[in-house]
Amino acid sequence: MTNETVEYDKVGKALELKYTIDGLLGMGAFGDVYKAKCTEDEKTYAIKVLPYGDEGKQKYQERELKLLTKMKLSNTSGSNVIKYFKSWLLRVSDGGYRLCIQMELCSFNLRTFVSKHENGMKFIQDSLFHRHVFHQILNGLVFIHSMYWVHRDIHPGNILIVNPNPQQITDIHVKIADFGLARNMDLKIKLKVLPTGEIGHENEELTQFYLFSNCAYMAPELATNNYDFKVDMYSAGVVLYFISCFPLKSDDQSKLKSEIEELRQGRRDIRECLHHKSDEILSRLILGLIQENPKARFSAHDARNFMSSQEANDLPDGNEAMVISPAIDCSQASKITFIARVENEEHVHFCVIKELTLSAIRAEVERNTNVKADQQALFIKRKINNEDMLIIIKDDEDVKNNFQDAADKHYEIVMVVEQRENIQENSNETSQNNSGDTTMVSTE
Fold this sequence. Notes:
alpha+beta
């Protein structure tokens, strides 16, 4: 009997009071994922089971649970990240403990789908496939990054497909999963006494990822202690390349890594590698994401804007530099996206405007939320000094300044909408102060 079989039996027996195990969905360095039917609600879930008590791994488990909990409690929950239900410690027959994380069940990961599903190879021949799938991946990354977290392990095996048997491309709904290596990027400052007696500070160090140094999906700077959200964008670029040229000549990670290096250095013509050789948007997007210099890469927000704006219009001449620009000038983009949420409502609305004016925003908010333009009071949600604040938007100048700031600093615009009949009670908090500066209202 193998170690895997022994573990399977231990977990199955320990879970049997509330769950019936129906197979192993996947195995990894940090734990295994089981398919399990709950006897209480008769629904089937994915349960990730990890050994508990190892100090070296426990920090990663705590980080994963923190992020999953934060996403679950978020007012703007992401539809392209895995849904988390609950977690608990499970005692098994050897007296040890396992950490169980219950999540929604997804049918395939992206690698398995394109290689084994009956429609996988047929779908990737259609240009709609990579556009539809990658736009959802970007939505998930925008959401994760907006919470000041970085995934650090984006690859086709961690992009899951919800639908059990999609018959057309638009049926495909993808979710980013496995946050075992994720970490918060809102780094803490540590104070220390310098030799001079002065009080100095140092930033919390990031972890170097030597363990994954041969992984083709890993951004080069992950092997250092100096990186940011752009590491996920490099990985996303390799994923986009993967689904745009599958089947690869080899799945060997070192060979794929060499191929990406050749593409980045211009020693390989990317158009000759892709199914859609004439798709200029696709080739520029991939090259812009796999730039060695993270400052030259798209953020998730910028990449999504690039796809939305460029796929709606032919690429104009002279825009070659857009792909390697760290931030698109949002005043020049043909389409600009933001999220609108009506105060006291849980669901959100994705909005698209073609001009940065208050009237354009009001019209798009009305179209999506049915709150009349003349009844809207609009606020942009921002994190300032680690506190969520609402900044009132009064005119076109406020719109341009805040949207440009979002483009420069790579965060998603969340527009909070209040109806004017609800505004009077908050008027003392949201009016301009005597200096004429815009008032910021805490959302706590």
